[in-house]
Amino acid sequence: MGLLLDIQHLSTSFKNEEREFVAVDDISFSLNQGETIAIVGESGSGKSVTSLSIMRLLNEKSSRISGNILFSRNGHTTDLLKLPERGIRRFRGKEISMIFQEPMTSLNPVLKCGEQVSESLRLHLGMSRQKAKEKTIALFEKVKLPRPEHIYHSYPHQLSGGQKQRIMIAMAISCNPSLLIADEPTTALDVTVQKNILELLKEIQEEYKMSMIFITHDLGIVSELAHQVAIMYKGKIVEAGKVKDIFSAPQHPYTKGLLACKPNLEVRWKSLPTIHDFMKEDEKGGFSSTGRSFSIQDKSLIEDTTEREKRLEDLYKKEPLLTIKNIHKTFSIRGRGWGLSSTKIHAVDDVSFSVYPGETLGLVGESGCGKSTLGKIILRLLEPNSGEIEYGGRNLRNLGTKDMRLMRKKMQVIFQDPYSSLNPIKRIGEAISEPMMVHKIYPSKNACKNATIELLEKVGLKPEHYHCYPHEFSGGQRQRIVIARALSVQPEFIVCDECVSALDVSVQAQIINLLQELKKQHGFSYIFISHDLGVVKYFSDRIAVMHQGKIVEIGEADQVYHSPASEYTRLLIDAIPKLVAV
Amino acid sequence: MLKPREAISPGKIAWKRFRRDKWGMGGLIFIMLCLVISLLGYSITPDPTPNADRQCLEISLAKPFTRLEFIKQEKTSKTSTGFLKKIISGAPSDFIYIPVKSIQLKGDSLIAEQYINYRKGIVDEQSYLYQQEKISTSSMSRTFILGTDRFGRDVLSRMMIGTRITMMVGFIAMGISLLLGLLLGALAGYFRGWVDTTISWLMNVIWSIPTLLLVLTITISMGKGLLPVFVAVGLTMWVDVARIVRGEIFSIREKDFVTAGKALGFRSPRIIFKHIVPNVMASVLVIASSNFAAAILIESGLSFLGLGAQPPTPTWGNMIETHRNFIITEHAHLALIPGFAIMFLVLAFTMVSNGLKNAMDKR
Q1: Which of A406, A421, A434 lies nearest to residue B256, judging by beta carbons?
Q2: What CATH number has the domain bearing residue B258?
Q3: CB 3.0-4.6 Å disulfide test: which of A84, A172, A283, B319 passes with B338?
């Protein structure tokens, strides 16, 4: 077990016309042969730039890399940063290979999958066409693709996301590299698929005695995979060490925060801990610990189970606010070519449930299960094929355009992508006050403006943000703006459609706390749609699990989690990455 | 209550980026210059007569920077033109200009060595009873910066008035194409379905007709002149605009803020005109400036073929046409000057269009 990769004082900066931006700031770490290091950080922490710097895949004109990247192989040590472009190409793919986040775009859509893998075999190892094909099929078997012969001749669009990522892995290991860099390889995948891919990566890493750099934003998934962890924050490695040490005794407040802000599956915090509970940051970018600690033994921080039971009991005594009955929605996909009939997809298949006033109903399922479609149907943004939607005693599907428009004040929606949810050319003040004006909620323009400022403050923004444009805000701040806009019409019922999925864990915790706080103040009812069972379990009173358009299980959150009735729910729960210790 | 904070709008960012683009800014400055020239028009042309058409055959084909002496003879009928009209369509001159080599006063007569053919240096001596014939006793000199054309007209003045025609054709043709393109493109993009099918079909049909042929047909059936050029160019170019707008709206209407607008109970017109259309304007601006360039080219081509504005109206195209035979003589500049003017203006618009495209690149 010799040293494979030794990174010393690596710094990467980008410059544009105005300023220079340091993405990676003097980091050092080393990696032994056959070892896995996980680099964990939130967006903008510089983790991906680190990997691209090692591969020298950054645009040389606009970026500057300094430091040493020493790569040892068969007794020779090379500094990758000193190699000319031609020299580094011999390392790429052969000695060091990479898997990217997005399996949909990493494969060339017009080439057959098998050919894309055998191409690199022929290129790097000089194999003949026939031999390369045999080797490719063997590799497909290794990454556990079903019917490898068949998949060799398939095009990328014929495969699922997980299968595509397996092909990427096969391609990456095809030349027996000594280092594999996996950049968020499972982020775009469903949890159940993620679990399988992680297992596969671990297996392959052990079998080939490869070293691996595993880059992720999710601290949870590295505990079983990696030997070492490096936590990155704003371009620096704030803490590094053995997995066991980091998980059992994190030293840096940022690490502590990161570990704590993911909803705990065993207990329910009154409000989720956030990074700021652990760490203070001064203006110069230095950190200091706040000295606070969150312990699951501390009863004052944890919601009391008997209190919760009592609250829920009161909740279900009331008349339901929203009842949907036997909702069906099919999409037809036109067949390709002449004479092919269209195929129908049952996106929502006979779904019925009720939501009670003040309740949070969690709707959980994997991508394509119909949960977002259902959310849109409830808000009548999509018409179902059949079924009834009753809200506050009125049948929404019988309402005319005018009545429906009035109804929209009561029901609001928050979408997943904070970037596309806001009109880029409207000031946020206008975005929030526009609905108030349209519905004439306040008598004057000035009153609308004051109410808007109040809302901005309520969601944790500042009054002077009124005149800013969306691009001046981060993802988390934008989601706050979107929430403020939804609140502008004083709704009583809000559908949150994956509204924290695009956010970093620490920001996610803040937004969830905000939603929780608003619910307490205004007595909202939520439908909380998410693919993340952990978050849903924390946030919801009841959980409905959706699979292939059907509700497979609905029940009290803890009960569903601890004693799932359906096989599918059990599968989902198993796939949640577990933190070893907090 | 609220201190107005310096907010950086997407438009400001684009402008900031555009200003850094040397070529784009150069193009914009050139266009601005042309715009100023065409707005001031007759008030700054050396020759302020309508269509800059003061013919003086004696001095035809003078070289650039030729300096000539003139004596003025008052016309019998005078016209008075208001100030505004003077700028818009020029004022007929009250004098006849007679090019002279030298003058001499002898008693009540003025003896002038008068040019018969300046180019060949042929001079004729003529005496005038200056009081009776209302002739000025002193000569005045004029410099022809770009020389004179085959009819002895000032080329600079004709170029300046030609700028006005060119810019006008560009603006009106672009206006027509934007109006039609935005409307039809937005309808197709937002409503989709059969509306889209019909409009797309129409676009494809117009697309498949060779532009110049269509323009020729329209011009011929409507008669020669400027109006058919506007109509022809506008009617063919809207397809470009419509295609871009339709595509943009397709993608914007899928954005969450449009759905959120629906969920907030906004009516369709508000969503289309206040939320979707303003987001399309960036691309429209880009296509508008490149269409402007295309319109100028088509107009020049038509003028060259003798189908555009009719003489004596000066357009760059018909100036080339009139002087194309001189291209192999020492007077090649007569055709080259309008030629380069067309080239530079088209280039300027193309560069502005490119600069805009880069500056407004979606983040």
Answers
A1: A421
A2: 1.10.3720.10
A3: B319
